[in-house]
Amino acid sequence: MENFIDDLSGFLGKSNKDDNLMKFFIKNNFIKEINDIQLSLYDEDGEWLDEHDLYIEHHSKGLSFIFTDEAFFLENINKPLLGKILYLSTVFFYNEAVDDFSKYNLGLPFGIQFSMSPNDLISLLGDPIIIRNYDNGNILTQRWRIINQQYDLFVSYNSLAEIELIGLTIPH
Questions:
Q1: How far is 89 from 69, CA to CA, in rounded Å?
Q2: Sign of CA pseudo-dihedral 130, 51, 158, 154
Q3: Which residue has the higher pLDDT, 70 or 56?
Q4: What is the pTM of this model?
Q5: Which of 96, 112, 116, 133 could be 108's S-S partner, Cβ–Cβ 3.0 to 4.6 Å?
Q6: Is 154 exposed, middle or buried (0-12, 13-18, 19+ CB in 10 A)?
Q7: Above 60 in pLDDT, residue 49?
Q8: Residues 157-169: pLDDT tens digits?
Q9: Rounded Cα–Cα distance for residues 91 and 148 (Å)
Q10: Cβ(30)–Cβ(22) below 8 Å
Q11: pLDDT digits (tens, 9 = 90+) for 13-39
Q12: Residues with Cβ < 8 Å from 116, sequence gap 6 or more?
């Protein structure tokens, strides 16, 4: 399933106006129709939500996605939030029983396995650009800037240093 990961990671930074991205999301049953990727700016009472991200979760597939409004994604502070043009900014791959997600079972980026330790990932990917630790000294998160890619890879661990989730995200 390496092509799936390559296709998915290649869509990072693409907008919901990209035909290939929308076809991929419909084909893989992430959405039912193109209009599913729009950000609601108001709640059911007509109150402003002040949200700039749309979350799409697929618990049974162990995947979730963040689409970000173009004003935030393009860092254009003079542009109002419209909720119409959204960019795929983050993809999460979940391990078993994390936030009620099933384990993502297709191939992970760069040959990563959920069973790997923080040191295994350093051996595979090199030194991370960011490391955050729990109070007990175990690693909470690691983040790598992926050379020749437009995204960063990050890994979150539980307090026993087991991988909980892996994310690909466009750095801002």
A1: 10
A2: negative
A3: 56
A4: 0.86
A5: 112
A6: buried
A7: no
A8: 998 889 999 999 9
A9: 18
A10: no
A11: 999 999 999 999 999 988 888 776 766
A12: 124, 163
